[in-house]
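ok trying again, last paste got cut off:
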Amino acid sequence: MSGGLKSQRLILHGRPRFSIDGADEVRLNEDLIRLEVRADEETPACLEAVFKNWGQSRAGNEPNYLYFDNEILELGRSLSVFGGEGDNEATLFSGQITAIEGIYPESRAPEIRVSAEDRLQWLRMTQRSRLFEDASDRDIAQRLADDAGLRADSEAEGPQHVELLQVNQSELDLLRERARAVDGRIADEEGVLLFRPRRDEPAEPVLLTRQNELLNVTVCADLAHQRSEVRVHGWSVAEKAAIHESAGVDAARVEADNNGRLGVEILDEIQSGLSEELHLEAPATAEEALKLAETRLKRRARRFITARGVTAGTPGLSVGDRVDLVDLGDLFAGIYYLTAVRHSFDMRDGLRTWFVGERNDLGGRS
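nice, full thing came through this time. structure:
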């Protein structure tokens, strides 16, 4: 999903705009009953939209089903949805129609439900067993994109693999595995496969306040998943020696956006020496083991504080963005990284945006 433009005018109640195969479809805008678009860090972005499906398609015609003629809604067609107006318009979703469902309620006119997913779905449907030789994770992502007919924007760094096996595994599962290993994120952006460092977003955070567009939010600091250290063990065949690498508080500190206290630090003060030992990852080199340790510790550290909120329609928000949540008090106010975003529309509330954000430090803002 594209982040689009983010202006200061964030609250929006207008109807989303639809296009099919690149052409605007005003009828869909008018017939929309409800819409939901969901995206997170690892799964294909998906859409579900319900439209009225009974009436006159043209003036003078007899009432009939509106969307059963395959003129507009058809399996496989490209579908894009936009929210906002003018400079604030942003792409909520871009993908292909994968399911069409007829709905025949007892007390309402017939409806049609359309489901769509972005192009990561094709990676999920392709399963292989093969060997990658002398390839980095960036090279592997490029190969997967080429095989799926996608362009690639693969900037996430990782170690060079002498051999890496894909065994009875979907292309998407392999891509997720490599993204987790190198602390990267994956997404489809209008036919481009993104394989980027997870915290490589230069844009300024979007300011959200309870006095305006932020309708409600809950924030939780939880030590359950924190560890003081992550240790990775393996064996180097080339050097015929054991591999032992570790990562601690310094790996997490580089992502502290708010100058607060890290969950890792707080845990160590309460109960020191709580480490995670990884013996099954089988790193081939010390470099690979260190990257695994740092990535695992960062992933744990980020889950220290989780925010779940709803805005009055912020179409520019997408996974990978940062938001600055203000007026939550010194403990929880600060910058959060978005890991999941859901845009919804219905006839009662108009456009709403739901988000999940995370951060690794507590306090720090006065």
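cool. Residues 53 and 67 are 6 Å apart (CA to CA). Helices lie at 26-31, 120-125, 137-147, 171-181, 249-253, 263-270, 286-302.
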